[in-house]
Amino acid sequence: MIIAVLSGFFFAIIALLSGKPIRKNMGWIPALLPLTLFIYFFSLLPALASGPLRFKYEWVPSMGVNADMKLDGLSMLFCLLITGIGTGVFLYASYYLKGHQYLNRFFCYLSIFMAAMLGMVLADNLVLLFVFWELTSISSFFLIGFNNEEKISRRNALMALTITGAGGFLLMAGCILIGSASGTYSINSLLASAGNLQQHTLYGWMLLFIFAGAFTKSAQFPFHFWLPGAMVAPTPVSAYLHSATMVKAGIYLLARFTPILGHTAPWNITLMIVGGITMLYSAFHSLQRTDLKEILAYSTIAALGILVFLLGVGTDAALLAAAAFILVHALYKAALFMVAGILDHETGTRHVGLLRGLGKVMWPVATAGLLAALSSAGVPLTYGFIGKDLIYEATLHAPSFAVLLTAVAVLTNIFVLYAGFQAGIRPFAGELPQQYRQLHLPGWRLWIPPLVLALLGVVFGLLPSLTDEALIRQVYTSIGGQGTLPPLKIWHGFNTVLLLSGITLVAGCLLYFLYAPSAAFRPLTDKWQHFSPEAITIKCSRAFLKFSNWYTNLFHSGYLRAYVSIIIIFITCLLGLKLVLDVKVYFDIKTNISGIRLYDAVVFAIILAAIWKSVSTSSRINAVASLSVVGYCICLLFVIYSAPDLAMTQFTIDTLTVVLFVLVLFRLPPFLKINDRKVILRDAVLAALFGAVISIIALEAMNEPTTKEISRFYAENAYVMAKGKNVVNVMLVDFRGFDTLVEITVLTIAALGVYSLMKLRVNSTTKE
Amino acid sequence: MELLLLILIGILYATGIFMMLRRSMVKLLIGLILLGNGANMLIFLLGGITRGKPPIIGETDKVLTGVYADPVPQSLILTAIVISFGLQAFAIVLLKRVHALIQTDDLNDLNTPDTSI
Predict the structure, then answer these.
(1) Mind telling me which InterPro entries this protein's record contains (chain A) (predicted)?
(2) Which pLDDT score, from 0 to 100, does residue A115 have?
């Protein structure tokens, strides 16, 4: 099983490396991969009747994260869709993008996507599910942005990634929350203890996070807008990702969690409301589009809305309807997308107003379009009819608001029918315009896949028992359906459901004949464009960019003193706060003070004066001279307080520094005359505060008793072990000899630097 | 005397930072040196100061006994002084080169702040 999932990733690498053969004539070869997988999953179908198949793989057992896989009805339905439609799409794409210079890359992305999708629906572990979930988002990003030379492609790909990525992030939070609340990441264990999480205090948050993930991925209102934008992808991608598989990942997630989190009022009501709004909103929008793919995109969103809505209704009948409708929709919508792609490929336009009478030149395509459109309309004897029957059955017997729910469903179905007819029938009917007369049927790889899918829609419609027990019931059980419901039938007899179907058909056909798709209403809806979720998202991201720009510039002015100021302000505030809040400052006179003698006071006074002079003077020589006075005074302090070595070093170094300074400064201009009082005052206050903080910290440190263990060791061993009487010297050259060696190295490097800078001859005019 | 040294350290730190916030490169260097002195004094003070008892073993003794100045901070400071001299020397020469190139002491003239994105 894990090989089946990972084979897509392996193949992706092979596809990437074998660009030439794929571009030449071997384009059909990649289609063998999904075909093989399809046969593999299909062969497992009978085994499913005796319960889900489980596959155990260890990954990170210490954290309860395992790469376990589980194949139950729901996973099986998705696996078959992914590999089955995948076969068609791979074949279709090999012709659709024939000769494209990046065809190998395309198949690489597509295989990654397929593998990720398979992994996601098979994963029996929340963490694993999340990983694959994100992989589908990422591969989708590359596929949407496949025409990466176009700005709109890049923009829409980014938009899709942003929305689904944000949802994925929240989904991760949800997974972790559920994992830690229930103590297990295994979906199977969660199912076994279903019902416990509903009572958890954080149940609301779990719902919120799971919904965020599902709604963004499945393009539910108000996150729907990325899906029409994603139509810039090549048509095979739209058929595969954005109608049949990836956008159903959210549905999969909701269906998967229905037994675990569902059947509560918040779950049902949220899903019903969101699904309902999405259905109506996008069905209405599909009326105003004239681009074939956009019409289909909106009707896809409507169908996704129906699925969410059905899961929200949550009765057994609704779950069965959802299970069947996933298959129904995937079959006809993928076919319609492929048909739209063929039209685009052959005529170069997707505008419904321009495409007429093409049935005369490409009748198999027209057949595919017609059958798919009929299935989407729910005409009797098609699979769509059965799907729609089940939906009406579910809404009519909903526990509450049955009439309202049914009305919403009927209205949406009318619009879906309309969209299906626009894409599947209108381009093939009527007179053939002059400019399309020389068109002929494209290669079989382009029209066989949609025809097969559309035909399946009819076959399943005529013989519903083919799918019923083997697949749909399995899905129904795995998403928590318990009661036994009548089997799928072609004919239910005369009842309310049939009446509703009739109303849908008649109203839809009337709409089709009376209202030609046009952008007439667009100005009306465009007025609201500023308040649309898309506009708000774009505004937010712009504002965020602006903010981060401002924020970066605030801290990165490029001036050294600004950086120093920020660091000092931060340290001062942090330490100052701590000192004010927690530390009692006191000065322990008894233990810590030694008397102040006259020469101490004199030295101190000299230092203060010298510091003041070096800061305030406007002459460089004065400043350097004062600096040297400070150094020599410190040298004196060292002498007084028993540090002769320090005094000698300080004396030498200070002298050298001053000499060097004077040598260099000789050529420098005088100090800049910058006397901005405000700035000086600000810096002075900051510096004074910082100095005060340091002093107080030093005071606090002095109040703590120090241990003299280390000093004692050196004092006792300096002569005994190292034969030296000057303890400081012995430490530096003997006990810590290597440190001193490194120090010498540092000095050497500095000396080399100084030497080379001195010797470097730079012509100031040419180098500038 | 510790009290005076505490104040001295505070002042050295404060003036060091103050000078580093100036626009002149020379002042920046002066600030750096003052700050270095402050840090040395801080270590010196926190090690405990002792008058007139250097950590040198007497002619006839084998170990240091009685009250003596702590040798550990002293060797630390000694290292610090030498290293900071390396830094100062390099910085001073660098300053000279920069001045030779752009004929100014103003740090602002060295700037190429990141332009907005």
Answers:
(1) CPA3_Na-H_Antiporter_A, MrpA_C/MbhD, MrpA_C/MbhE, ND/Mrp_TM, Proton_antipo_N
(2) 92
Structure tokens at A242: 């954005």
CB A433 within 8 A of CB A358: no
Is residue B57 assigned to a domain? no
Q: Which of A608, A611, A752 is the best mutation test for B, with the most CBs of B within 10 A?
A: A611
**Which residues in chain A touch residue B23, judged by CB atoms under 8 angstroms apart?**
561, 672, 674
Q: What percentage of chain A has pLDDT greater than the value 90?
A: 23
H or E stretch covering A39 = helix A32-44
According to the model, what pLDDT value does residue A631 have?
A: 93
C-alpha dihedral sign at A259, A263, A264, A270:
positive
Residue B112 is predicted with a pLDDT of 55
Alpha-carbon distance of A25 to A386, in angstroms, equals 41
Of residues B116 and A665, more confidently modeled: A665
**Is the per-residue pLDDT at B115 higher than 60?**
no
Q: Give the number of A-B residue pairs with CB atoms closer than 8 Å.
A: 294
CB contact under 8 Å between A642 and B50, yes or no, is yes
Q: What's the CA angle centered on A584, arms A583 and A585, to 5 degrees?
A: 105
Below-50 pLDDT ranges, chain A: 764-768
- Rounded to whole angstroms, how far apart are CA atoms B47 and A497? 93
Can you give the CATH number for the domain in which B90 is found?
Answer: 1.10.287.3510
Buried-exposed string A738-747: b where 16+ CB fall within 10 A, e elsewhere:
eebeebeeee
Q: How many domains does chain B have?
A: 1
Name the residue among A74, A117, A85, A89 with its Cα closest to residue A456. Answer: A85
Which residues are CB-contacts of A696 (< 8 A; sequence separation ≥ 6)? A579, A583, A585
Phi and psi, residue B63, nearest 5°: -130, 160
Taking residue A605's Cβ as centre, other Cβ atoms within 10 Å add up to 12
A318 min Cα distance to partner chain B (Å): 52
DSSP H/E element including A71: strand A69-71
State ipTM. 0.91
Torsion angles phi and psi, residue A542, rounded to 5: -65, -45
DSSP assignment of A692-732, as one string? HHHHHHHHHHHHSPPP-HHHHHHHHHHHHHH--SBHHHHII
| Cβ within 8 Å, pair A699-B6 | yes
Q: Which amino acid is at A253?
A: L
Query: DSSP code of A125?
Result: B
Cα distance from B86 to chain A (closest Cα, Å)?
Answer: 6
Cβ–Cβ < 8 Å for A12, A33: no
Domain ranges of chain A: 263-520, 596-671, 707-768
- Separation in Å, CA of A541 to nearest CA in chain B: 15
Tell me which residue range forms the domain holding B10: 2-51+67-107
User: Would you give the distance in Å from CA A579 to the centre of its chain?
Assistant: 43
